[in-house]
Amino acid sequence: MPDKGYLKKLRIPTNENPLRVLVSACLVGVKCGVDGDDYGDYPSVLKLLNYDNVKLIPFCPEDLSFGTPRETCDIYEGDGFDVLEGKAKVLTSSGIDWTTGMIKASEKMLKIARDNKIELAIMMDVSAACGNHVIYDGNRFAENKKYQIGMGVCGAQLSRSGYQIISWREYESLEILYSRIDPTHTINKNAKDFDQHEWYKTYFKK
Ligand code: SF4
Q: Which ligand 1 atom sits nearest the alpha carbon of residue 105?
């Protein structure tokens, strides 16, 4: 869940010293989705490309380990933290165990974060790799598919090393981010984070 206090205290970046942001590659148009496409347009993130005082570092962990195109995978019996602790598995929709490859991809993502001294990560949600707030609970193609609050494996890897992550749909948090990088930005007070939406509140009975 985004730490709005952290976002409010982000330094004001300059062109000479831009804000370093690790981003799920598919969010900025890289065709690394399971079917070899991106997953559509994400204006809330794409807008960052317009700023010289933001340095985006795109990375697709699944592409690293499994290539593109590839099968879809989900986490079974837990979330990304459980996978890293050996208590849950990552399986493809045809049942192939991708746990080891996913952990390897998460370690690479952590290395990229460290090498680039990132100050924030913006990631795709519901992915077994990049998910950072809500992910599927087991097979997303099951008739009775379920969601859980939790992180994917790469989200968990970054989070347990102290990196702050927001998802592309945390609109309130993104508004705070834009107010830090753009002095002319007026915060949209109606923007909501994921957990303030009716679907989320109803589904998780908040
Ligand atoms: S969500 Fe992550 S793993 Fe999936 S396509 Fe996007 S960058 Fe790659």
A: 3
Is the CB of 32 within 6 Å of ligand 1?
A: yes
Of 82, 83, 129, which Cα lies nearest the Cα of 110?
129
Q: Band of the pLDDT at 50, cuts 50, 70, 90?
A: very high
Q: Where do we find the tokens 């290395």?
A: 111
Average pLDDT, the chain: 96
H/E stretch holding 22: strand 19-24
How many CB atoms sit inside 10 A of residue 38's CB? 17
Measured from the Cα of 59, ligand 1's closest atom is: 7
CB-based burial label for 11 (10 Å; 0-12, 13-18, 19+): exposed
d(CA 141, CA 194): 22
Coil vs helix vs strand at 201: helix
Tell me the best of 73, 124, 133 to mutate to test the pocket of ligand 1, counting ligand atoms within 8 Å of each CB and taking the most.
124
Q: What percent of the chain has pLDDT over 90?
A: 96
pLDDT tier for residue 39 given thresholds of 50, 70 and 90: confident
Query: What confidence category does residue 206 fall into, taking pLDDT thresholds of 50, 70 and 90?
Result: low
